[in-house]
Amino acid sequence: MNETALFKLSYGLYIISATHEGKDAGCVVNTLHQVTATPIQVSVAVNKNNFTQQIIEKSGMFNATVLTQDVSMDMIKRFGFQSSKDHDKFDGISYERDARGIPYVNEHVAALLSCNVVQKLDIGTHMLFIGEVVDAQILSDEEVMTYAYYHKVKNGTTPKNASSYQANSEKKGWRCSICGYIYEGETLPEDYICPVCGAPASVFEEI
């Protein structure tokens, strides 16, 4: 089976945020989809290992922002390759809060959806949440970023917790055990730093 066939599916890229008892959380996903029109409902799959998933379960609500093509890779790294359990991902960046107090990034995002969880389904590695949209806003007219654009133009990689993560066994080199970035080459420099997550050479695994 050629699993890269799944790369032909069309995805966007989003930041899912939640808050509970004063603790904010957020992560990057490509699994947000509208599933019904009346009422307006969306689905999103979030890895059970993500702290954001735990916060959504506890609070019963979340919001989603649609990322645009000019969002920085630093923003992707911030929300996609570190945990909200250990880092305040909203510290030092521009953000606002929706009517329920959930934070959201307000730059290089095209739209905001605020949702109440109405159903959830355990699907193994991920929890699938169905959210009823209680508020929606257009935040900019910038071009939205597709998952294909993220890979082809921004040379982005996929974190291990992502639904679409695939281990690539064909490339020869070294793989970052934190974010999955692959360095191609027989020898990894001792002072090498992962260009995606900033991890040192010591966390790379030979492949």
UniProtKB/TrEMBL annotation:
<dbReference type="InterPro" id="IPR048574">
    <property type="entry name" value="RUBY_RBDX"/>
</dbReference>
<protein>
    <submittedName>
        <fullName>Flavin reductase</fullName>
    </submittedName>
</protein>
<dbReference type="InterPro" id="IPR012349">
    <property type="entry name" value="Split_barrel_FMN-bd"/>
</dbReference>
<dbReference type="Pfam" id="PF01613">
    <property type="entry name" value="Flavin_Reduct"/>
</dbReference>
<keyword id="KW-0560">Oxidoreductase</keyword>
<dbReference type="InterPro" id="IPR050268">
    <property type="entry name" value="NADH-dep_flavin_reductase"/>
</dbReference>
<feature type="domain" description="Rubredoxin-like">
    <location>
        <begin position="171"/>
        <end position="207"/>
    </location>
</feature>
<dbReference type="InterPro" id="IPR002563">
    <property type="entry name" value="Flavin_Rdtase-like_dom"/>
</dbReference>
<dbReference type="Pfam" id="PF21349">
    <property type="entry name" value="RUBY_RBDX"/>
</dbReference>
<dbReference type="InterPro" id="IPR024934">
    <property type="entry name" value="Rubredoxin-like_dom"/>
</dbReference>
